[in-house]
Design a protein that fits this description.
The chain is of the alpha+beta class. It has 16 helices and 13 strands. The strands form four sheets. The chain has a five-stranded mixed beta sheet with strand order 7-8-11-10-9, sandwiched between helices. The protein has a three-stranded antiparallel beta sheet with strand order 5-1-6.
């Protein structure tokens, strides 16, 4: 409800001027905005857009509003788009056009930055369109959003994002040193999120890796919300590591090594130094030799990433055995139990839940799938 004597300002969890974009062309103008009340983005146009733009430009005294505008302001306040507090932490004072190909994608970045700040979680944004903006890759768009938080903060951020419509794809290994990221499945927003707590290929402790990346960050605006991304050289290393990490026992292909080498080359000589600082030279040995043939690297002296053994295991059972070595001995029985008997939440987030409604049926399907896998292995 509008308050007599108040001065109103615009607040949100991210906003973009899409008047020149396809989002706004159909209504001849428009602001795409994420209210503070959890939900989906809204497209403001017409009278509502004009009023909200006034709030963005500066404080608007209640005395300068018509009764209809006061009613609209009251609705905006209830939705989390207006506030009578000029010092509100989510106040927005400028509207920029989207710099990403997808405005909705950019709003997801802004929302993550907002939610992380609300929960006192340090967050860095990695890969994605920023790589294109830094000249490290040609592709301008990514299908999902990648961020990096301190170890153990991934679960906390995942819980905070649930009220906005994302569902964490939990597994028995979530929250351990085995998995480097936690996927948040997209709801109505349509963009999945990968929350990293470390990055494969860096042979250093997760907290130290996060601190290293944080030291190099540069500020970047996402839909009017401030965020941080790695500096160009270290970001080239992160992108190259993504290309070459082993998958289900398979090492990087020649094409992946070439792609990683090209990214490192774009990152300049500083990328080679960044790979050394990140203890990523072992993982990037082949692309580094391609990108910098004059640089001498002795493989025998380089630290091996902790997850390379299980990633290079072609057998799922062997991979589990190697992965369990990364978990403290005291915690292994609990993890093993959860691998054999996952929680209901973990079951419904897993692949065995497709098209199955009840927890009991998902468990039954999982047992049948495991039995078939063991039979195939015994025959091979």
């Amino acid at each position: 409800m509008s308050q007599s004597g108040a001065s109103w300002v615009a607040v949100c969890a991210g906003a973009l001027d899409v008047s020149e974009h396809d989002f706004g062309s159909a209504v001849e103008g428009g602001v795409l905005v994420t209210p503070l009340v959890p939900g989906e983005p809204l497209l403001l146009h017409g009278v509502g857009e004009a009023l909200w733009r006034r709030l963005v430009d500066g404080t608007v005294p209640d005395s300068q509003l018509t009764q209809d505008e006061r009613d609209t302001i009251g609705e905006m306040e209830a939705m989390g788009l207006a506030s009578a507090d000029p010092g509100h932490r989510s106040r927005i004072t400028r509207l920029d056009p989207p710099w990403m190909l997808s405005p909705l994608h950019e709003l997801v970045y802004a929302l993550l930055a907002h939610v992380a700040a609300q929960n006192s979680i340090e967050i860095l944004f990695i890969k994605g369109p920023t790589l294109h903006a830094q000249g490290l890759r040609e592709r301008a768009h990514s299908g999902d959003v990648d961020c990096w938080v301190q170890p153990r903060e991934d679960l906390r951020l995942a819980r905070a994002m649930q009220e906005w419509g994302w569902t964490p794809a939990l597994s028995p290994l979530s929250g351990t040193d085995v998995l480097h990221s936690l996927t948040l499945r997209a709801g109505a927003w349509g963009s999945a999120i990968d929350v990293h707590s470390w990055f494969p290929g860096m042979a250093m402790e997760a907290s130290a890796a996060f601190a290293l990346v944080k030291e190099t960050t540069e500020d970047r605006s996402f839909a009017g919300i401030s965020g941080r991304t790695p500096g160009r050289a270290l970001h080239a290393v992160i992108s190259a590591l993504h290309e070459v990490r082993p998958f289900q026992g398979r090492s990087a292909s020649h094409a992946q090594i070439d792609a990683a080498a090209a990214t490192l080359t774009r990152g300049g000589r500083g990328a080679a130094d960044a790979a050394r600082l990140a203890h990523a030279e072992y993982a990037l040995l082949a692309p580094l030799r391609k990108a910098y043939p004059d640089r001498r690297l002795d493989e025998s002296t380089l630290p091996v990433p902790k997850d390379w053994a299980w990633r290079l295991s072609s057998s799922p059972i062997r991979a589990y055995v190697e992965a369990l070595k990364l978990i403290p001995a005291a915690a292994r029985p609990r993890v093993i139990f959860r691998i054999l008997w996952p929680t209901a939440e973990s079951l419904h987030a897993g692949p065995s839940s497709d098209g199955v409604s009840t927890t009991r049926r998902i468990r039954l399907r999982r047992v049948v799938q495991g039995w078939k896998l063991l039979r195939r292995k015994s025959r091979s």
